[in-house]
Amino acid sequence: MTATHAFRFAAASAVLLLAGCASSHILTGTPRAPIDPAQVRVYYGAPPVAFEEVAILETSSGALTYGEQNKTNAVLRKLREEAASLGANGILFQGTADGHGGRGVSVGAGGGRFGGSSHTSAGIGVSISPRQKLGRGVAIYVPNPPPLQAPVAPTPAP
Length: 158
Description:
alpha+beta, two-stranded antiparallel sheet
């Protein structure tokens, strides 16, 4: 393998590794023109009265996201972005689960003989990537949704 081929192989491997953090969807309805992710409402309990299903969504928090709240925020952000790219203005949130990753240590050793010389080697590998959080939801289109309300700041006590 030439150096050029080795570089291309390493670059392709890096792209595939990063693609593992991407969101995915399976179309189950009709997509629409993309919208702003801030317009996508997440429904945690009862769904709206009328809606059209657009797609099933799956995503992960990412390989380098630390802290449970940060992982959940990343999952919700990615679900909103994926739904918005399909023109869906709502998500029926189906929950999260712990994915792959986590800390680990590997040890390896080897030896051999080549051209009249013998050699031995040993290695230790350490993985410190956090366990990812996986999220799932259904992208929906809600005709005439009620307007999103901005959070109301509490009034200070006199």
